[in-house]
UniProtKB/TrEMBL annotation:
One of its GO terms (molecular function) is transmembrane transporter activity. Residues 103-173 form the Multidrug resistance protein MdtA-like alpha-helical hairpin domain. Residues 1-19 form the signal peptide. This is Membrane fusion protein, multidrug efflux system. It comes from Kaistia soli DSM 19436. GO terms for cellular component: cell envelope; plasma membrane. Residues 64-205 form the Multidrug resistance protein MdtA-like barrel-sandwich hybrid domain.
Length: 399
């Protein structure tokens, strides 16, 4: 054979071999290429699902007391340590008591003087009562004696009131804590002049164990929750609702609180309503003014479906969709209603029935109505396939 004819013949053979290779059908190729595509599915069953709502909030002291003097005077001593914890009744400040001590002593002396006049006036009335019957004393004299006795007793009562007032003012020179809690820095030092009921507080005490967390939520969320309750699907727990906190650094607070109360009105400006939860705070982890996220447990959806988030997509209108297997192993796309996220799942209340087979693996290779080869798979806690086509061969990441 001519060498010039050998080379074209070899090239024609090579092209024929390549064409034959390209014509072979892969057993798991794209739709319409031959054998059905393998997809992984999970079977969905209705189950009780805890319903929670996440609400933003801020911590606030359960009690606040501004310390103000109730008498005028000079601060002689500050007793407490700034920023420390004080108990109710602890001494905080001492105001110079000398003026008030003198006033008390004077009032006490006036009381003694008034009390000394009573026995004499009483004896005179008793004596006149015996003599008025034998005309030794006139009725007018008896009346005058009785008036003198009444005046003496009134003087005693007035002096007693003056003593009590002086004693109260003297007690006010010792400024004590009305509540227990964390005390702020002092606004005054020793030697400062203070006045009764001044506008500037000497210090502030905040009670932070227990501590309140004020939560604010939208009315739309409130109506959604009420809709679940009215439908009978939401089973409320007995007792107050439990609340968990996520701190600003993303760490969960280790104490569980309870929902105490909620506002009966909605804000006209923001369309929100407020709730208050109470938490134990023995270690003072929560401080007034901290931003937190609260997770409020509302109860259990008695017949909820948990759909892995990796299996849910959105159509052009924004509606949530998922792909299911029909009885003849074809793909069926449905619109589902997602209520809220539960870990790596969506809680779905519409578009699913018990026993439906949901496609969770191989979604990129299929379309609606395509015939597929289903393989049961399992997902781990992160929503990643543990067994099935994606686990044994091509890996798919969770959406």
């Amino acid at each position: 054979m001519n060498r010039r004819n050998v080379r074209p013949a070899l090239m024609l053979g090579l092209f024929a071999a390549l064409a034959a290779c390209s014509g072979e059908k892969s057993p798991s190729g794209p739709p319409g290429s031959g054998a059905p595509v393998e997809v992984g599915f999970v079977t969905l069953n209705a189950q009780p699902v805890p319903i929670t709502v996440e609400i933003a909030g801020r911590s606030t002291a359960s009690a606040v007391a501004d310390i103000r003097p109730q008498v005028d005077g000079i601060i002689r001593k500050r007793v407490f340590t700034e920023g420390s914890t004080v108990k109710a009744g602890d001494l905080l400040y001492e105001i110079d008591p000398r003026t008030y001590q003198a006033t008390y002593d004077s009032a006490a002396a006036s009381l003694q003087k008034a009390e000394a006049a009573v026995p004499s006036a009483q004896a005179k009335v008793d004596r006149y009562n015996q003599l008025v019957g034998v005309n030794s004393v006139t009725a007018q004299s008896l009346d005058d004696a009785k008036a003198t006795l009444a005046q003496a007793k009134a003087d005693v009562a007035s002096a007693q009131a003056a003593v009590e007032t002086a004693q109260i003012n003297l007690g006010f020179t010792s400024v004590t804590a009305p509540i227990g809690g964390l005390i702020s820095t002092s606004a005054v030092t020793e030697g400062a002049l203070v006045t009764a009921n001044q506008t500037t507080a000497l210090a502030t005490i905040r009670q932070i164990d227990p501590i309140y967390v004020d939560l604010t939520d939208s009315t739309a969320n409130l109506l959604r929750i009420r809709g679940l309750m009215d439908s009978g699907r939401l089973q409320r727990p007995e007792g107050p609702l439990q609340v968990k906190l996520i701190l600003d650094n993303g760490v969960a607070y280790d104490k569980t609180g309870t929902l105490q109360s909620s506002e009966a009105t909605v804000s006209q400006t923001t369309g929100t309503f407020s709730m208050r939860a109470t938490f134990a705070n023995p270690d003072r982890v929560l401080l007034p003014g901290m931003y937190v996220r609260a997770i409020v447990g509302l109860g259990d959806d008695k017949a909820g479906f948990l759909v892995p988030q990796r299996a849910v997509d959105r159509n052009a209108k924004g509606a949530a969709t998922a792909m299911f297997l029909t009885a003849d192993n074809k793909v069926e796309t449905r619109i589902v209603n997602t209520v809220q996220a539960v870990g790596n799942n969506w809680l779905v209340d519409e578009g699913i029935k018990d026993g439906d087979r949901l496609i969770v693996d191989g979604l990129q290779k299929i379309r609606d109505g395509a015939a597929v080869a289903p393989v049961a798979v399992t997902l781990d806690e992160n929503g990643v396939v543990k067994s099935g086509p994606a686990a044994s061969g091509e890996k798919e990441t969770a959406k």
